[in-house]
Write a structure and sequence with these properties.
about 625 residues, Beta-Lactamase, 5-stranded antiparallel β-sheet, single chain, 5 domains, 24 strands, alpha+beta, elongated
Length: about 625
């Protein structure tokens, strides 16, 4: 393509360009092809573009940061031309509308030339606006202006290609830099302890960037202290070299800027006295210090040293900055996690106090004030200390109705839960067998009596004695049967309630002598059994008042008074309980044996803090005492 432009280029009127014009155009194409900067590329491009279009008086290219500006002129044509401020309005319209713009201008009073036209075209690449090109041309017809706009559109593709290549190159460099930074940061993640991670990170950074030494420091008590150094497992903080490195790190951290010595950063006004002193005293050729930050705060610095013949270039500095940005939070997190627990606690307290007495954090201040007020209230205020325990209602007297002899159930009108009166029939046993036995014994007695009278008449003394004994035996059997017949009906011993027993489904079933058939308890005399835990029994005394809430009456509180403490504990559910008996202060007509609930025994008034914490404090005291030798 360039070779084609080395020949004479036909003009629109059919003539050919002079040899000087060909040479000049050849130089422009050569400059265009070999341009190494965007400004040089745009300068040669604008010159070629203006030469290709007829009637172009002047031209201008504006460039700026992609997408945001500001956009400024980087080249004009012809070089050294008159002021082109009049093209600014067309350029602004082009940049705002982001499309081609054509505007006609009438001659200004006093000008000898006719009016002119202005053509503007935006320069875009990958959706981002990079600038605009504006040309001043002689007045022309609408088709001619459209042809110029089309030619400018085609020519702008070169600039779009330039910026696309630059974007691809920049992305590739950024990708390589990020990959290198990630590889370096990954070296600090393969160790359990923080010192090993820091040492591996510094050594890997020194190897990758070909540094003589890389030092890693962290801020402690307001100053940077060297923590790890590449290729050095041990070093002394008191040496002059370490002190100089720490001072250089402080210099970078205080100014929160990357320090490069001896060249310095472009446009930087940072003070590098400590870096100069480090280089002078210890022969460091090139130095680069990058502050480390985590969570928006400076935490330390990286200091890299190279020989004088290999100073830090822009690419190396950008890589170091990327590594520092990634490694800072990771190293700080590892450092915090590797501290002693007491150091972590102290740091948390310090951070909490700083937030509490510093600005902002209104919610924390209100919460702290509320907690402090609650603690103060708990320490100063007193409340009723009461021992809580499970309770069971038991009758004072409980009678048992047992089977008086072996027999069979004939009737059972009473059941558990029935209210009975004294003498009321609870159960009737079948007496037919007993009556037959009594009849048999009565017959035998009559027979013995006849034989007795006969023996008396015949004066048989021995037989009389035998018959007398047999009559007494028959009389005893009859008396026993009469007593059993008298007990075939089991009667209620007093007015009360049947606690247990339901034989209505066992009519005709046999029962053995002594088997408990019913249990009856009175309705007006009960006692309360409170199962007090052994940890609280020392505070319980006879005569203390308390209150009871039964599961059957959860809306009613019943007053009670302790009257007996059983000195024997009973194991239940893995814990020991003492049985404390209490009486009801007022009769309660709805109480029933076996009711359960929760009872509280009033001890005295004590501080609320003691009431809420005494159990855990006692447990800790007992555990500590048992662990001590």
């Amino acid at each position: 393509m360039q070779q084609a432009h080395l020949k004479s280029i036909p003009q629109r009127d059919g003539s050919t360009e002079p040899h000087g014009e060909v040479t000049q155009e050849h130089e422009l194409w050569t400059t265009f092809a070999e341009a190494s900067t965007a400004a040089a590329f745009c300068q040669s491009w604008l010159a070629l573009q203006c030469r290709m279009l007829d009637g172009v008086r002047a031209g201008m290219v504006l460039l700026g940061p992609p997408g945001r500006g500001p956009f400024r002129p980087v080249t004009v044509w012809p070089e050294g031309s008159r002021n082109l401020k009049h093209l600014i309005k067309t350029a602004e319209r082009t940049l705002v509308d982001r499309r081609g713009v054509v505007s006609r201008h009438q001659p200004v009073e006093g000008e000898t030339q006719n009016g002119h036209c202005e053509i503007g075209y935006p320069i875009e690449s990958r959706g981002a606006l990079h600038g605009a090109a504006v040309l001043e041309v002689l007045p022309a017809s609408e088709p001619q202006l459209q042809a110029m706009m089309q030619q400018l559109h085609w020519g702008a593709a070169w600039l779009e290609l330039l910026f696309s290549r630059e974007a691809v190159t920049a992305e590739h460099e950024i990708r390589e830099r990020i990959q290198a930074a990630l590889d370096l940061v990954a070296t600090s993640l393969g160790h359990e302890r923080f010192y090993g991670s820091a040492m591996a990170f510094a050594t890997a950074l020194a190897t990758t960037l070909q540094c003589e030494r890389v030092s890693l420091g962290f801020i402690r008590n307001g100053r940077a202290h060297v923590f790890a150094m590449s290729h050095s497992a041990e070093f002394k903080q008191a040496t002059n070299l370490i002190r100089s490195i720490s001072e250089a790190m402080d210099e970078a951290v205080d100014q929160r800027e990357t320090m490069v010595y001896p060249s310095g950063s472009v446009g930087s006004v940072a003070v590098s006295r400590a870096h100069a002193e480090l280089a002078r005293q210890h022969g460091a050729g090139a130095l680069c210090s990058i502050p480390l930050e985590a969570f928006g705060k400076p935490i330390g610095a990286l200091l890299l040293e190279r020989p004088a013949d290999r100073p830090f270039d822009k690419k190396a500095i950008e890589l170091c900055q990327s590594v520092a940005a990634l490694a800072g939070p990771i190293l700080e997190t590892q450092r915090r996690e590797d501290r002693w627990l007491i150091a972590k606690a102290a740091d948390s307290i310090k951070s909490y106090l700083a937030s509490l007495f510093g600005p902002r954090h209104v919610g924390m201040k209100l919460a702290t004030a509320a907690v402090a007020g609650l603690l103060l209230f708990a320490l100063l205020a007193k409340g009723d200390y009461r021992v809580s325990a499970k309770t069971v209602v038991e009758p004072i007297v409980q009678r048992t109705a047992a089977a008086p002899f072996n027999g069979y159930i004939r009737e059972a009108p009473a059941r558990a839960g029935d209210l009975v009166q004294a003498g009321q029939v609870l159960c009737t046993l079948d007496d037919r067998e007993l009556r037959l036995e009594r009849l048999k014994s009565t017959s035998k007695l009559e027979e013995y009596k006849k034989e007795y009278h006969k023996a008396m008449a015949e004066r048989e003394a021995a037989k009389v004695e035998i018959l007398t004994a047999q009559m007494h035996q028959a009389q005893a059997e009859i008396a026993l049967l009469d007593d059993q017949l008298a007990h075939t009906k089991l009667l209620a011993p007093f007015d009360g309630i049947v606690v247990t027993g339901d034989l209505s489904q066992q009519l005709g079933a046999p029962v053995e002598k002594g088997k408990v058939l019913f249990e009856i308890a009175p309705l007006d005399r009960y006692r309360l059994v409170i199962e007090v835990d052994e940890r609280d029994i020392a505070d319980v005394m006879v005569g203390q008042r308390g209150s009871l809430m039964l599961s059957a009456f959860p809306s009613e509180i019943i007053d009670v008074t302790t009257e007996k403490i059983t000195p024997v504990s009973a194991a239940k559910e893995g814990r020991n309980f003492f049985r404390v008996e209490a009486r009801f202060d007022q009769p309660h007509d709805r109480l029933r044996p076996g009711m359960e609930g929760a009872g509280k025994i009033e001890i005295d008034r004590r501080p609320l803090s003691w009431i809420w914490t005494h159990q855990i404090v006692d447990w800790i005291r007992l555990a500590v005492w048992s662990w001590l030798p």
